[in-house]
User: Which sequence fits this backbone?
């Protein structure tokens, strides 16, 4: 890539006044509302707004949250993953408008508690794809509460519970004191098999430490390089790969043959456009079965790593970190991607690896992309000219083009 031209991902390292949004999920009875009460009682959470998604004609959960004020929003027209995403986007924009008019104090964080049966993926897609909302809010990750007492009984029976865990950035283990040490250890092994890239945090009864829970650093370029090895999870413990193209690096065991994960290591930095095309076609081909893809990529012409993040067929706009991590396996500056999918066979994994290894050059990638109008990574292929503050609004993950500014100003 020509260093004199802009890369097809953000070069800004800081968010421009965007409010972090955290999605709090977990299966029925896992302890989400209990955790929410513990979090909102903390003085450092005084500036947080809480959105609660209720199901049924009579909402109960929001009455169990002790903090009832203007910063609590009830989304009760359906499940967030099914019908209420538009309501969520409108509620976020109303929150922004009220802050702009100084009707409420500035909000420092938004917490969205989903129903116990919700799939977080549509919520993440909505947050990433709505350009007006994403200009003002940024996704800070998914927190999934896991009931240590019941998890092993629930996981084989409920796909929703497995998906919630597979999409998590951090797994918050509740009721470990009731489950006991042996059962909690067994649950942790199950969780590591489902999502090896997610940090596991034991919750103490009635206590919550915001500093340990928030700031997953998965969607934000201001994450410090040392955190990259943290959120890439199991990658840090993998052995150095042999000098062969895209060989497996210790894939995690599958859970009941349904959700499995594996890591792809790139011995050399692939051309960006060819990689973007290959990954986009992979997301298309395995749509509905690839729950999550995330990792750091080396790109020719760049001295820093690029954060790659995909959720359920949607590709987030890529950003780059300020520098490569200095310690751990990522210090070798090789790209690594974690793939988490449902009902993926060994043949599926082999095909994904083969497609990445055979990614075309830049010119060929652009030619092929012209025949793929719905490519999830199409925006990755386009180089953007950096805009000055007078021309556009810069964010850490993208640049808002001037043609959108009128629409933003009308709504802002």
Assistant:
């Amino acid at each position: 890539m020509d260093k004199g031209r802009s890369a097809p991902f953000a070069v800004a390292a800081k968010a421009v006044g965007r409010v972090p949004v955290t999605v709090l999920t977990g299966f029925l009875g896992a302890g989400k509302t209990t955790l929410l009460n513990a979090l909102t009682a903390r003085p450092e959470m005084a500036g947080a707004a809480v959105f609660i998604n209720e199901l049924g004609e009579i909402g109960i959960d929001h009455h169990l949250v002790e903090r009832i004020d203007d910063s609590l929003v009830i989304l009760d027209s359906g499940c967030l993953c099914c019908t209420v995403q538009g309501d969520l986007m409108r509620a976020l924009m109303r929150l922004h408008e009220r802050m702009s008019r100084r009707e409420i104090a500035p909000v420092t964080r938004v917490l969205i508690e989903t129903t116990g049966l919700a799939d977080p993926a549509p919520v993440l897609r909505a947050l990433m794809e709505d350009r007006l909302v994403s200009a003002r809010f940024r996704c800070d990750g998914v927190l999934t509460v896991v009931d240590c007492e019941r998890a092993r009984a629930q996981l084989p029976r409920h796909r929703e519970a497995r998906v919630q865990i597979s999409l998590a950035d951090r797994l918050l283990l509740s009721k470990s004191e009731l489950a006991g040490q042996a059962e909690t250890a067994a649950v942790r092994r199950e969780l590591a098999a489902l999502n090896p890239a997610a940090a596991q945090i034991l919750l103490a009864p009635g206590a919550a430490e915001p500093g340990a829970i928030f700031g997953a650093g998965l969607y934000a370029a201001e994450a410090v390089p040392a955190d990259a090895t943290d959120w890439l999870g199991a990658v840090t413990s993998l052995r150095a790969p042999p000098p062969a193209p895209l060989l497996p690096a210790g894939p995690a065991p599958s859970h009941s043959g349904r959700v499995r994960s594996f890591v792809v290591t790139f011995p050399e930095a692939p051309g960006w456009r060819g990689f973007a095309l290959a990954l986009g076609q992979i997301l298309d081909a395995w749509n509905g079965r690839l729950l999550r893809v995330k990792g750091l990529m080396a790109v020719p012409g760049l001295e820093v790593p690029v954060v790659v993040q995909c959720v359920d067929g949607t590709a987030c706009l890529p950003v780059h970190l300020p520098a490569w991590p200095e310690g751990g396996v990522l210090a070798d500056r090789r790209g690594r991607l974690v793939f988490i999918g449902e009902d993926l066979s060994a043949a599926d994994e082999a095909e994904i690896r083969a497609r990445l290894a055979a990614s075309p050059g830049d010119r060929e990638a652009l030619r092929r992309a012209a025949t793929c109008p719905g490519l999830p990574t199409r925006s990755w292929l386009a180089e953007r000219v950096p805009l000055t503050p007078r021309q556009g609004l810069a964010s850490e993950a993208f640049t808002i083009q001037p043609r959108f500014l009128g629409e933003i100003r009308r709504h802002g």
Remarks:
- The radius of gyration is 21 Å.
